[in-house]
Amino acid sequence: MYIEINHSKLGTCANAIDDYISFMKKHMDLSTDKVNKLVSNKWKHADALEFQNRWLKNLDSTSATSRMRASLQNYASSLRYAEGQYKEAQARAINKANSLY
User: Fold this and answer.
1) Where are the beta strands (DSSP E) in 8-96?
2) What is the pTM of this model?
3) 2 domain residue, yes or no
């Protein structure tokens, strides 16, 4: 019995997570820009500032958005670490098997 791992899929998954993080950051930045422009150009009342302040809380390090991004980054790092460990283990197993001949 043996364990077969396609370690490249771990890296592919980590890359997909990185792409999603970039996508999320890009759209959060675009949305922040739109909120700021709306408040500075057209929307001038106290409710505008309240909305802007609430939106900006989405960007602070304790927000759900920031915590999710950090979790995804940690997950991608773990996948890359596992990929490296499986590559190493596979290489060691092959070398050990070859040394038996």
Assistant:
1) none
2) 0.81
3) no
